[in-house]
Design brief:
240 residues, alpha/beta, globular, binds pyridoxal-5'-phosphate
Length: 240
């Protein structure tokens, strides 16, 4: 992991005040009649463990990570805290065992092979693994996520596994420059989520929206938003 130069590292007070501001933005974006505001998932990829610790000290419990190995290293340093870890990055089959052992949620299940692998490796002494199906709602560019037409078969397979708990859908809509296209993607996800919930009553989570569009996502039914930059500041590029 690269060490960031001194400059962009927010101090603990800054982290807490950004979190407070986000929580009120989330509250304000919550549509009338929705009882529970969307959950704030702090996306801590590329962030050092001490920043996760600082954010946990102001009450943040749920963190999202993209890379299994990076997450495991951080979890080891933070084992004294009671945190909830979500895997939000693409999952290779050969990492399914580690993901099943070390995460509370996997948001990036997008193919049948992962259903069996995650179920088989979920330790018996832990509650069932919470699972979201990642949908490639805009098709083209991104390779992650299943097609909308694959959701039902994946959902039925997950629901048939006692070591998995189907909670809903996750998506990363393309950052369309035109707001109407972004709205269309969120609306399509909201419809898909409603169909899924009608078929599987335990479904209660729609994970969509990031730093740049979480309010729009909440207006269209997001129950969990994944926010990195607006909390921690801009990330250093580190992807290979
Ligand atoms: C990095 C990432 C985020 C956070 O994005 P920001 O724009 O920094 O808030 C959310 N979801 C996924 C899947 C990511 O990889």
């Amino acid at each position: 992991m690269n060490h960031a130069p001194e400059s962009p590292t927010p101090d603990p007070e800054t982290l807490c005040s950004r979190r407070d501001a986000l929580l009120s933005q989330i509250q304000n974006a919550t549509p009338a009649g929705v009882r529970t505001p969307a959950v704030l998932l702090a996306v801590s990829k590329t962030q050092e463990a001490d920043r996760v610790r600082a954010l946990a000290a102001c009450g943040q419990r749920r963190f999202g990570e993209n890379y299994v190995q990076e997450a495991l290293a951080k979890q080891a340093l933070l084992a004294d805290l009671d945190l909830e870890w979500h895997l939000i990055g693409p999952l290779q089959s050969n990492k399914a065992r580690l993901a099943a052992e070390h995460f509370d949620w996997v948001q990036s299940l997008d193919r049948m092979k992962l259903v069996d692998a995650l179920a088989r490796h979920r330790p018996a002494d832990r509650p069932p693994l919470n699972v979201l199906i990642q949908v490639n709602i805009d098709d083209e560019e991104s390779k992650s996520g299943c097609l909308p037409t694959d959701v039902v078969a994946l959902a039925d397979a997950i629901a048939g596994q006692s070591r998995l708990r189907l909670r809903g859908l996750m998506a990363i809509p393309a950052p369309h420059p035109d707001a109407r296209d972004r709205v269309r993607a969120f609306e399509a996800l909201q419809r898909l989520q409603a169909e899924l919930a009608a078929r599987h009553p335990g479904v209660d989570t729609l994970s969509m929206g990031m730093s740049g569009d979480f309010e729009l996502a909440i207006a269209h039914g997001a129950t969990l938003v994944r926010v990195g930059t607006a909390l921690f500041g801009a990330r250093e590029r580190r992807e290979a």
